Amino acid sequence: MLGETVSVLVALSWTLCALFFEYAGKRIGSTNLNLIRLLFAFVMLGVTLFIMGGSFFPRFADIRTWGWMGLSGMVGFVLGDYFLFYSYTLITARFSQLIMTLAPPFAALSGWVLLEERLSFPAILGMAVTLAGIAISIYSKGPAESAETPESGTGSGTGHLRLALPLKGVIFAVIGAFGQGVGIVLSKEGMMTYQEALNISAGVAGDAASTAAGNPLYVPFAATQMRIITGIFIYIGLIAFTAGLKQFFRAWKNIKGMRAALYGSVFGPFLGVSLSLMAVRYTNSAIASTIMATVPILILIPDKFIFKRQVTPRQVLGAVISVAGVAMFFIKF
């Protein structure tokens, strides 16, 4: 139950993260935001690790651990997030988030291949119900939002929208879902490797390694920082290669955008991602990913009561179905 409970907290954290990053991205640009949020999270994680284990950087991680976490950072933070943010500009965030419901199936498939994980029938059924609820909720704004996508034409209805979406945007969103789904499974493998390295070090290095090995939060937070370090270097290279350094430094002068980026970094790369690694450490990767995929549903709450946006009955129905699907993960048959 610990992994499932943490997964719900991750969904809440990522909901707040999405709201802050939506605001920041419009002011400082999505690529700049990707690097800035990782820099903020790197510092916050470093301070946390120093408090936990006396070092700003992850300790006692062997080459295998860095390999797994580096690969996870490349697939999740770089590949997944880059193409997800790009897809927003091609098919709008609404359709991108709909396609992002493919992340749990990708996680299930990669978990089966890499970790030999199995899913019970209630879990599979709960995943299907949750994904159905997400799809219903996202599609509920079809006629209104189709006008925001030039390629979608003037017609309404989900079938027309699916057929009219730009292929490039769909492919990019699928890559984003693949990155998030596979990245979380790679992280789980990396954390298991890291825990083994800490246990071995505890018998050699003494109290420092023993303290880290015995702290259930240390491995997820340290693993997240390893992923972030990989992402930072790759994004720096990407921005430098595309001659975007001037725009990057100019973004720091946008006070409102930077403040939103900081808040989003707290709830996203810092708390959200770290807790997501903790979630998959204590439950099946596909189950955790499915619960965390309810973010598009949770966003309806601030939309209604904070931003005063219209929430249709179909969206409410989708939210109810999604919550019912999540609840099935807690039911013992």
Overall pLDDT score? 79
Our Rg estimate from Cα atoms comes to: 20 Å
Low-confidence stretches: 140-164
Strand content: under 5%
Helical content (DSSP H or I, runs of 4+) = over 70%
Q: For the report, how would you describe the main beta sheet?
A: none
**Helix count, DSSP H or I runs of 4 or more residues:** 16
What is the count of β-strands? Answer: 0
Q: Tell me the domain tally.
A: 1
Give the helices and strands as they follow along the chain.
HHHHHHHHHHHHHHHH
Helix/strand-derived class? mainly alpha
Distance between the termini: 15 Å
Large-scale geometry: globular
Brief account:
The chain is globular. By secondary structure, it is mainly alpha-helical. It is 81% helix and 0% strand.
Q: Your description of this structure?
A:
The protein is an all-alpha fold. It has one domain (2-328). The chain is 81% helix and 0% strand. The protein contains 16 helices and no strands. It has helices spanning 2-28, 30-53, 63-99, 103-114, 121-139, 142-146, 158-164, 167-205, 207-214, 218-241, 245-251, 255-282, 285-292, 295-298, 300-305, 313-328. Helix 2 (30-53) runs antiparallel to helix 10 (218-241) and helix 8 crosses helix 12. The longest helix is centred in the middle third of the chain and has 39 residues, at 167-205. The chain is globular, with a radius of gyration of 20 Å. It starts with a helix and ends in a 5-residue tail after the last helix. 51% of the residues are buried. Residues 140-164 have low confidence and may be disordered.
